[in-house]
Amino acid sequence: MKTTIQKCTKILLVFAFFVFSNSIFAQDINTQIAIGYQQPGKVDVKAFVLKNEATIQLEGYAGLFERMGNDLIFYGWILDSKSRKVVWNLLEAANDDFFSHGDPGRFSFKKEVKLPAGQYEIYYAAGMNYDRFGNSDIQFQVNDLGELFDLIFRRIDGEINDDYNKHFISKFVMNVSAPSSVMNEVPWDQKVNDFAKNSLVSIIRVGDNENIKRSFEVTSDVKLNILEIGEHSGGDLNDFAWIINSNTYEKVWPNAETKYRKAGGGNKNKTVFQTVTLPKGNYTLFYISDDSHSYDKWNVLPPYDPQFWGITIWPDLEDKGKVKVAEGSDPFALKLVKANDNSYISQGFTLKKDMKVRVISLGEASGEDEMADYGWIVNNDNHKTVWEFRNQNSKYAGGAEKNRIINEVLDLPKGNYTAYYVTDDSHAFNRWNDSPPLFADLWGLSIIIDSDKESFLLTDGKSASNDNVLVEIVKVRDDERFSKTFKLDKESKVRIYAIGEGVDGDMVDYGWIQNTVIDKVVWEMTFRTSEFAGGAQKNRMFDGNLLLPAGEYKVYYQTDDSHSYHDWNDSPPYDQDHYGISVYMIK
Fold this sequence. Notes:
This protein is mostly beta strands.
């Protein structure tokens, strides 16, 4: 009996030992998450959840290399998935000795961080152009991240050594660990995707060369929260968004209260969070990115919250019923858009009554007061320019500083008109030599009619004065000499409209009128009697009346060997189609 009891006691003790040991062992098991260097311009990211407050272990290898005035850094950080705030950053946590004596190369780190319960994202990146000394004026001689990697890792004694490269950079890693009882790994994109899905508009993880448009309707005054992270470099907006009134294309955001701040990483990473109030109406969000530095591939250190590169808009919970996604509409009555290099495009229109028209035009500034790509509107009935693109009246259109936009309302009388748009040989739609504007598709001239749309008609551009034409010699090319005759049965007043080229005070493309009965020139276009005709300063125009006695007349027009219709060697005049001379009877 005693033996049996002793055996049972031993079995129970052994069982208790294993249970206790397994319990201790289970407590010692850690969840381990490893992230590290991927490739130039890419970020590694993973996520975890802490069930309650815990101390996590962080250890691994980072690096700082200096070459040719550039800093190449390997480092990591942790982001709170809910607040989107950085809760730990290796660059701040590392011992200052690593950064105070120049180039430490690859170095190890081991840290403990206490974090409250919640969800977190871990990032590891490699990049350059990080100014750890707070000096934004440092000049960097190497402008390509891949080039800098090659410079540091791939050349050993003048030879390319890929094996060394792969072996060395593979050791830039960071391990995060904590007891499995408190930490679980979760999908890295889960929190951001869930938030984006429940937003009004969310354009995230934006890549290069994106041009995105989203429309929404506000049924009553609503407050909207806006989070944007993008690229602003040297005063230019490169990856950025605007919100406009869909009916007028007037910008409603960013506004005077919008304040951008640093988004971490490279100096050109900028972010803004703002709450705005929008009245009832229809709105469109435009987002554009240029050809570099985005979620596709960062060419300097990425921002601390790279997943939200783009823009996200959401209302507070109680305001969700006041706003909804809507189908976008095209409000334009006339569009001369998507103008390419060396374009000259036009479109006639007729107003059946006096009207207000909204002109929206994007163009390229070539100087403080001059435009390289621009538009204008001519009244066909009197050949007067009623509107022209002037740089001093324009605003910044996003992208390169030379991208300009005008959005204004004109009061135009009943009549016949032609809208024109011209470009030079560079920086136009789909041929940008710098960052494009936000409304790239509207590069050109457009017109919006807010009301009485039936009173606005597109036409072939003919004028009411065509019935009164006595002579018309227009669209004259190089090295031409034309003449036409007309007869007056009685003394009459005629209108002369001529466009030509004047150089150094003399006319080289010009017209004149001769009385054939008395063989005498009765009128001639001169530099002094003409005025500026738009475009290049040498473009001249005469528009005036002349009283002529009864008789027979011959109208002449001649050009030299350059700068004429469709063969301009400088900016053309506004009314290109009437380059030459026209004579009208005044009734």
